[in-house]
Design a protein that fits this description.
Elements (H helix, E strand, L loop, with lengths): L1 H4 L1 H7 L4 H23 L4 H16 L7 H12 L4 H15 L7 H13 L1 H9 L4 H22 L1 H6 L7 H6 L4 H6 L4 H22 L9 H21 L13 H19 L1
InterPro entries: Isoprenoid_synthase_dom_sf, Squ/phyt_synthse, Squalene/phytoene_synthase_CS, Trans_IPPS_bact-type, Trans_IPPS_HH
Cofactor: ATP
Keywords: Carotenoid biosynthesis, Transferase
Length: about 270
């Protein structure tokens, strides 16, 4: 599931040692199942998301269902101190999607980014092992938020086709834009200015999150650094395309991702020096 749904995350996960890698994949698969339910919609989506949350709780209680994801998550939760509260926040974030949540302010969007991605840092850090206590977790949260904001900036056109707008109303208004402007799909100077500033916000979150990577233990440092660098590369491609996220999807090629591995390794060397 990890390899199929997130090649960037999968690349980073390959750097973990075997048992940690299996736990990271279990966490990703459980999160992905919830996300797929919320994205899929349908008349019974509330019931299916509720069933997913019950399955997660059962796995943490040591009573997994027969589904392989449930059994894998139960094993991961038994082996590592992954907090159930992080999954509870994810559940709330997915419910925001089901309710068609309107994002009035940047604070609203930041909360959403925390719930659907930032808290994944709370799940991965205990698997990695880390120093620095809560301060390190705060940095892991920032890194997850940066990745989610990257997704949002990449997928504006795709989300519009699903009837979703994550760009906050106050941010649109600041640049003289509204939903109708987005639906026209025209990359105007005002739209570019807004995307430029939101990209800068994402990069600021990446910088905060990256500062916590040296506090992880062992090979987890390279795993997370690789995923972060590859994900931030999506912003590079978006910028290079003139912020056109209506007619194309920003991405990082497999070759570019592999080239980022030595960059991530060198970056970690400079931290330790």
């Amino acid at each position: 599931m990890t390899r199929e749904h997130s090649k960037t995350f999968y690349l980073g996960s390959r750097c973990f040692p075997g048992r940690q890698r299996a736990a990271v994949w279990a966490v990703y698969a459980a999160c992905r199942e919830g996300d797929d339910i919320a994205d899929g919609g349908g008349p019974d989506v509330d019931a299916r998301l509720g069933d997913w949350w019950s399955r997660v709780q059962g796995a943490f209680a040591g009573r997994p269902g027969e589904h392989p994801t449930d059994r894998a998550l139960a094993w991961a939760a038994r082996e590592y101190p992954i907090p159930l509260g992080a999954f509870a926040e994810l559940h709330e974030g997915l419910r925001m999607d089901l309710r068609g949540h309107n994002y009035a302010s940047m604070d609203d969007l930041t909360l959403y980014c925390r719930r659907v991605a930032g808290v994944v840092g709370f799940m991965i850090a205990p698997i990695s092992g880390y120093e620095g206590g809560e301060a390190t977790l705060d940095k892991a949260l920032r890194l997850g938020q940066a990745m989610q904001l990257t997704n949002i900036l990449r997928d504006v056109g795709e989300d519009l086709s699903l009837g979703r707008v994550y760009l906050p109303a106050e941010v649109l208004d600041r640049y003289g834009l509204c939903r109708a402007d987005l639906e026209r799909g025209v990359v105007t100077p005002e739209y570019c200015a807004m995307l430029r500033d939101l990209t800068a916000q994402a990069r600021a979150w990446y910088a905060e999150g990256r500062a916590g990577i040296p506090l992880l233990r062992g090979r987890a440092r390279l795993a997370v650094a690789t995923a972060a660098r590859a994900y931030e590369g999506i912003l590079d491609d978006l910028e290079a395309a003139g912020y056109d996220n209506f007619n194309r999807r920003a991405y990082v090629s497999g070759r570019r991702k592999l080239m980022m591995l030595p960059q991530a390794w060198w970056e970690l060397r400079s931290f330790s020096a």
